[in-house]
Every structure is written in C-alpha cells, then in structure tokens.
Predict the 3D structure of the following.
Amino acid sequence: MTATGTRFEPGTFTPAPGAGRYGRMLLTHARIETSLTLRHGEQILLTLLIPLALLVGLSLLDFLPTGELGSLSRVDWVTPRILALAVLSSAFTGQAIALGFDRRYGVLKRLSATALPRWLLVAGRLVAALVVVLLQVVVLGIVAALLRWSPSGAGIGAAIVLLVLGTLAFGALGVLLGGALRAEAVLALANIVWFVLLLAGGILMAPSSLPGVLGDLVALLPSGALAEGLRAALVDGMFAWDALATLAVWAVAAGAIATRTTKLT
Amino acid sequence: MSAAVEITGLVKRFGAVTAVDGLDLKMPRAGLLALLGPNGAGKTTTVEICEGFLRPDTGTVRVLGLDPARDGAALRPRIGVMPQGGGAYPGVRAEEMLRLVAACAATPLDPAWLLDVLGLASARRTPFKRLSGGQQQRLSLACALVGRPELVFLDEPTAGMDPQARRLVWDLLAALRADGVSVLLTTHLMEEAETLADEVVIVDGGRVIAQGSPSALTAEHAEDAQLRFKARPGLNTDLLSAALPEGYLVRESSPGAYRVAGLVNPQVVSTVTAWCAQQGVLAEELHVGKRDLEEVFLELTGRELRT
C-alpha cells in the first residue's frame, strides 16, 4: 500500500448520510445562482446596462419609436416598456444562456446526484430570477424617478403581479430554450430572440402602433403582453386582465414543455 | 443487510449500440470494487444506471437495496457521486460549489477542511472553469464525499491528476474503505485497481469477462510465470527462442521489453542471460514472476487498439 497511513484519522469518513433541510438548500442554491448572475459581466450588460442606457436615452432624446405620446412625458411612456425589457433580458435571455453553459459544465447532473430534489433545483433558479428582477426594478425605478417618472400609484400592485408572472413566463421560456440545445446555439438564439422581441415584440413599439392584425398578434406575445400590461398599470392605473391571462398561458405552456424537454447535459 | 450494489441481467441500448449486454455484478458493503474495461466497455453506462441517471432496458439493479430508477429520492442522500469530467457552474468558486453540495446533506464534512486535505485551499476562490483538470477532479471528488455517504460511485477519479494528487486520492480511498464506506470506482489504471481494490471486475462488450481479487486474477494462470527483461530494442527473438528448450516463446511486447513465456526454471534464466552475453547485450530489470493485472487485462480484452 502506498498510503502514508496517518493522513486521515480513523472514523473521519464514517457514513452519516441524510438529506439537508429544504430551507437551507433553497437558500444556498438561490444565493449562488443570484451571485453568479451579478458577477457575470455580460449578464450585467444585458440585464442592467442596456436597459439603463435605453431608459435614459429614450427619456432624454427625441427619437421615440412612436409619436403617440399625447400628454404623456417621455419617461412615463418609456419606463414600463423598459421594465418589460429588463424581465425579458434577465429571465429569458440571461437565464437561457446561463443554463446552456451550466449544462455543458455538468452542473445539473452534479446537483441532481445530490439530495437536492428536482423541484428545488427549479425553485432555486426561480428565486434567483425573481431577486435579479427585483434588483433591476429598483435600479431602473430609481433612475426613472430621477428623470421625473411619475407612475400611477393605483397600478403598483398590478405591476408587481405582472412582473412576477412575466418573470415566470420568460423564465420558463428561457429554461425551455437553454435546456434543449447546445450552449452556442442557445447563446445565438437567445440573443436573436431578445433583439427581435425588443424591436418587433411590443416592447419598443406599442402593439397598437403596428399595422392591422400584426398589432393583435404582438399583444399575444409574452413581451407585448408584459409591456402593455405594465403600461396599463403604471400609466393608467388599470389592471390588464388580458395581459395577465396571456402571460399565465405562456408560463404554463412553456413550463409544461420544458419539464419534458430539459436535458441535464 | 442488502448488498451495496446488485445487478442482474442488465441490458442498455443506445439506438443500434448495445452498451451493456447482460451484465451481472454483486458488490458487498464496505468493500472497494474496481470496474476495469476498455473504452466503450459499458463501465460508465453501468455506473450511471446505478446512480439513477439512466434507466435499464432490461435487468434489475439494486443499490443499497433500492431501485435507482424508482427510489432515487430515497437513494440519493445516501450515495456520493463523482461523474466523469466533474460538474459545476462554470463561474462558481470552488468553495461555493462544495458548500452548495454540503448544504444538501444532513451532517456534512467540513467543506473548508475537505478542500484543505485535497490541496484546494489556495484555489477555494477560483472559478471552476479556471481550475486545472486535476483540481476540477479533486473538487468533484470532494463533492462526492462531503455528505458522508454510505456508498460512493467514482468514475475515473484520478484521471488527469498528477502522481502526487493520485497518491493522495489513493490514501483517501483507503481511508474511506477502512471507515466502512462502500466504493465502486472505474479506472484505466491497473496500479490503482491492484493497490486499492478488494474485488476487480473486468468488463468488455457490456459483460463481465473476469472478476476476483487482484491476487486471484493474477494468480489464475500461475503456471504461466514469466521471465521479463529489458534490453535494447530489436533483438532477434527467434534466435533466443531457438536457444531455449522447445515450447518456450520469446516476444518483444513493447520496444525493448521482452517476455519469455513458458515454465521458468533456473536453466531458462541461465540460458537467457548467457544468450544475451553472447550478443553483447546487458539484460536489465530481469524479473521472474506471475503476470501483473495489466497483462491479465490485455490478455482478456486484446492488445489491439480499438477503433
């Protein structure tokens, strides 16, 4: 035997198996997922810097994609749409790309070999996604407030519900994409979808400004529904049930498909 | 008490390829079993079925008495797994990853201590993707052990490690075994299997082709004790064979390494050294003994490189 013999005290590895407490698992998992997002430069660019730049740029400069401002200030028109973009960026694009690379590095397999139950694996990611969205909303909200944003107080509750449901819907779509393809394909596709939804998915251009049936279709996209729902809430103080229902359908459908298609590696 | 692992008639196909083809295996508790086999022999597939990652097509698998495909939730807290090639978030720090896995266990080992003994203390804040291959392997091993499991599955645990790290891991595996942990490992290192294993199982083509303790496997054909020596490459082995009594065969098994097959007696040794002297060749590392595990392995699984 090559063992030096004294390196390990007898009894060091005596088995004492058992699962940890769910609360601790969830907390540890969600904390790591959150800090990995916040530590990642490209994720910060995508989830925070680009939305911030658009918020400030579109509020101060006069190149809004629509002329239908009416009595609305630019920042009041822009902010709800930028909040929708923030959710799209972190819950969908960021999530999908991170999951694509996590799978390549085998972390899902690693974690599913522990006592961590599958539902907790999803729950940890979900909590992290909600924490990131919360941080985005706080930062964007503060900057918007400095730009004299005055949201409708009556719509704050509706906006919170929409943001949570939007995170769930986009998160499920992100898992669907990130869990199915190779990391490079996920990276490319998640960015393309982000760009297309930003320009033509009802975020920068209101569905109502799009011609004919296109506007109705865009309102049924998760991006269109979230942006319009947030506009109704934060501008008009209204609860947009149709937007809420649209997001719920997307969340349930994408979640159901993703649970079948997501591969560990 | 149920066996650590009990596999009967296991078959697993991937499309047209049959990865595991009627494999039987029984591993008692608190032992160390080494699964040997050429690449593609079905080792990893077998281990992944035991871990619950894959479902068998036919056959039964019981791990600690449980069916990994059905009772995974009950089984996973009791086992430790080191998948081939590790597994972690690309950007996660070594210590964070180990603490996450530790949080999944009821009474884990101290992660800081484990990193320290595995020589990862200085890398504890290094992101996983920037660890060297050997460091990633050691972190992966730490993740397999941190939950104080009853049974660990280690898929090529020392692959990519330098000799110092390998010896450290061997010490650790010996300590695990001494503390009553059951260990099933796959390896390509015969020395690893020979040094550590209570039981060696050689797998080829998805079936078990030989098994037993290392000494039993190497002693099985004890009458085939061999004379081995080293000298300059390219000696005329036909001439040496002719110098020996009938029935002896001399082969250059690799350049400069010669093997005389047949019953070795003092006469044979003397003939070989005398012939070498005649050729003006110094026979080095002259060795008489039974075959080692590598020779048994090559004999059973063939010497040709598989394509």
In short: DSSP finds eleven helices and 13 strands in chain B. Chain B touches chain A through 53 residues (CB under 8 Å). The longest helix of chain B spans residues 163-178.
